[in-house]
TrEMBL record:
This is Gp25-like domain-containing protein. It holds the Pfam family GPW_gp25. It comes from the Bacteria. Residues 20-103 form the IraD/Gp25-like domain. InterPro entries: IraD/Gp25-like (IPR007048).
Length: 125
């Protein structure tokens, strides 16, 4: 069992925990959506791909993003997963990322899918 991300309290008033498969998915999510420089004492952690929500994405950007994500996951999670494929797309103010990987400890192949949308702006009268 591992501490859940984001940190939360369970129904019994204790630290929420997750199984290993969900923990790996949560670690991938942290690497993907943390911007470099965001974490104290780990300035190289993350990818900063959240900025792609604002960009129009062409084939070159997708290829560069896949390379960047592959490198970040290898750098920070190479002892946990072996990345097999990455799919990135952005449309309608949403960023979707799929990471196909093998969990090294169990040998299980998995696909983790993530989506981030622009926050909706509420109108103030």
């Amino acid at each position: 069992m591992h501490i859940a991300f984001p940190f939360k309290i369970n129904g019994r008033g204790r630290t929420a925990k997750v199984e290993t498969d969900e923990h790996i998915r949560q670690m991938i999510e942290q690497v993907l959506f943390t911007s470099p420089g965001e974490r104290v004492n780990r300035p190289d952690f993350g990818t900063g791909i959240s900025n792609l929500i604002f960009a129009s994405i062409g084939d070159e950007i997708i290829a560069a993003t896949k390379f960047m994500v592959q490198g970040a996951l290898q750098q920070h999670l190479s002892d946990v997963i072996l990345v097999q494929d990455i799919h990135v797309e952005s449309e309608d103010a949403a960023l979707r990322v799929a990471v196909q990987y093998v969990a090294i400890k169990s040998g299980q192949q998995r696909v983790a899918m993530f989506e981030r949308k622009l926050p909706e702006v509420s109108e103030v009268s």
